[in-house]
Amino acid sequence: QVQLVESGGGLAQAGGSLRLSCAASGRAFSSSVVAWFRQAPGKEREFVAAIRRSAFNTYYADSVKGRFTISRDNAKNTVYMQMSSLKPEDTAVYYCAAQVGIDGIRTMVAEYRYWGQGTQVTVSS
């Protein structure tokens, strides 16, 4: 079992930065692939970034590549996402997701079993 709690969302201006955190409970976290997804009003939930267990492999959606950085600290059971050069189109609820027992990157919602409650990110122009 893995429980996830996101934090760090809020209001930012275009061009600004925010750092999201995903704190996990459960020993299985260190053996989990973890991803961030986001969902804007009226849109489907979409993949943003993912990180493998070892933290050496990461993967990003094209829309955030070069602007967002995902990282993890397994000793703290926490995954982070540093978001820079924010755009109004980054406005969404951001969700942390984890799947235990795999190591390859997954980008589909259905491939993740554990989800956080989400944190709102709003970027003003």
Identify the notable features of this structure and list them briefly:
four-stranded antiparallel β-sheet, seven-stranded mixed β-sheet
Based on helices, strands and strand pairing, what is the structural class?
mainly beta
Largest sheet data: 7 strands, mixed
Number of helices: 0
The termini sit apart by: 40 Å
As a percent range, the share of helical residues equals under 10%
Oligomer type: single chain
Task: Flag low-confidence runs.
Answer: none
Question: Can you walk me through this structure?
Answer:
The protein is built from no helices and 11 strands. The protein is mainly β. It has strands spanning 3-7, 10-13, 18-25, 32-39, 46-51, 58-60, 68-73, 78-83, 92-100, 114-115, 119-124. Helix content is 0%, strand content 50%. It is globular, with a radius of gyration of 13 Å. Strands 2, 4, 5, 6, 9, 10 and 11 form a 7-stranded mixed sheet that branches. Strands 1-3-8-7 form a 4-stranded antiparallel sheet, with no helix packed on it. The model has no long low-confidence stretch (mean pLDDT 94).
How are the elements arranged and paired?
Layout: E1 3-7, E2 10-13, E3 18-25, E4 32-39, E5 46-51, E6 58-60, E7 68-73, E8 78-83, E9 92-100, E10 114-115, E11 119-124
Parallel strand pairs: 2-11
Antiparallel strand pairs: 1-3, 3-8, 4-5, 4-9, 5-6, 7-8, 9-10, 9-11
Q: What's a quick, concise take on this entry?
A:
The chain has 125 residues and is mainly beta.
